[in-house]
Amino acid sequence: MTILYKFYLNGYEVNDIDDISLFVGQNAESLLKIFDYNIIIQKSSQNPWLEIIFNNLFLARIIEGCNAVSVMILFVSFIAAFSGKLKNTLLFIVFGIVSIYILNVFRIALLVVLLYNFPESNKLVHDIVFPLIIYGYVFLLWIFWINRFSKYAK
């Protein structure tokens, strides 16, 4: 899956951002607009990332690694390695990917608000708290899978 994802990324120009990252940025922007935030998330004209403009201030950027695809690949690999019945395995993989995607969009939106309001906590929030949340969630999904559906559960 990692090799396939790498081929997907290689299909983009050096200074372009992939469609998955673009879609994540659009969803994060839409979520923040629901709460009436002044937010623009746009492609950089010269760099392979999205620019986050919050209250008319350049706040941060979204790069390819922010789209959580690597986390989804890790999740799917574990579920496949400890598979159960085919139907359960495929349904749980779909559920996991969708829920990780949604959690990631919320993560980005919340991170934007926190970075704006508490810029001094950037390192703590971005590098420790949010990875802990997303990887912790994947770990809980794995535990649930192993205990409920995996053929190793018994």
TrEMBL record:
<keyword id="KW-0472">Membrane</keyword>
<keyword id="KW-1133">Transmembrane helix</keyword>
<feature type="transmembrane region" description="Helical">
    <location>
        <begin position="89"/>
        <end position="116"/>
    </location>
</feature>
<feature type="transmembrane region" description="Helical">
    <location>
        <begin position="128"/>
        <end position="146"/>
    </location>
</feature>
<keyword id="KW-0378">Hydrolase</keyword>
<keyword id="KW-0645">Protease</keyword>
<keyword id="KW-1003">Cell membrane</keyword>
<dbReference type="InterPro" id="IPR026323">
    <property type="entry name" value="Exosortase-related_prot_XrtF"/>
</dbReference>
<dbReference type="Pfam" id="PF09721">
    <property type="entry name" value="Exosortase_EpsH"/>
</dbReference>
<dbReference type="InterPro" id="IPR026392">
    <property type="entry name" value="Exo/Archaeosortase_dom"/>
</dbReference>
<dbReference type="InterPro" id="IPR019127">
    <property type="entry name" value="Exosortase"/>
</dbReference>
<feature type="transmembrane region" description="Helical">
    <location>
        <begin position="58"/>
        <end position="82"/>
    </location>
</feature>
<keyword id="KW-0812">Transmembrane</keyword>
<protein>
    <submittedName>
        <fullName>Exosortase family protein XrtF</fullName>
    </submittedName>
</protein>
